[in-house]
Amino acid sequence: MNNNIAIKAEQITKVFGDFTAVDHISFEVSKGEIFGFLGANGAGKTTAMRMFCGLSIPSSGNATVAGFDVYKNTEDIKKNIGYMSQKFSLYENLTILENLEFFGGIYGLSNKQIKEKSAELVTKLGLEKEKNKLVSELPLGWKQKLAFSVAIFHEPEIVFLDEPTGGVDPVTRRQFWDLIYEASENGITIFVTTHYMDEAEYCNRVSIMVDGKIEALDTPTNLKKQFEAKSMDEVFYQLARGAKRSAD
């Protein structure tokens, strides 16, 4: 196996009864890459992500995540990844420090590591004065940045981000992406879904799923050239329109 590959999928498929949610998708993600996983609601993104996170077993195909098999090593996968969803995942009735202590314990960090990393994190995020506040008292943007920081608290090889910037303002979204860039520079692989096409421009490469299949995969620059488009919005629109015409 190529040691530079963080995620490798070969003809991965997920079938529910007569419905094929993920249809023979294949791709590779390099270590440290920011990989955008795009598609409309119902395209199969979340179903695919659940398989790569070790939460759902594929119907067929092969895949490895952080070098571990998605069929045989689901628990090893979970230990080597971070995850953040659009549905805010921290405990709102705990303080910032209590959340860090709780998740640090889940991730298997020692008390000393948790204390050191917590102090470093609240300083980095400028939350020294708020560290003993309940998470419920923080603005949404701060909650999202804190949730991302917790997702990589244990320094995982890969972090999966499912619509991480939903509902926050453009300035906060840009700040959030600064955190993503920093994590990538530190060697963490970023696998991110988003419906904001301008955010696709921030990725090293993007795949676009339509009806369970990957219909396009390349750098944003190359995709815009291929589809003679000025933006990723136009690329996405052309693919969606083409799929609709095929269905009709």
TrEMBL record:
SUPFAM superfamilies: P-loop containing nucleoside triphosphate hydrolases. It comes from Cloacibacterium rupense. Residues 7-236 form the ABC transporter domain. It holds the Pfam family ABC_tran. This is ABC transporter domain-containing protein. PANTHER family: ABC TRANSPORTER G FAMILY MEMBER 20 ISOFORM X1, ATP-BINDING CASSETTE, SUB-FAMILY H, MEMBER 1. PROSITE patterns: ABC_TRANSPORTER_2. Keywords: ATP-binding, Nucleotide-binding.
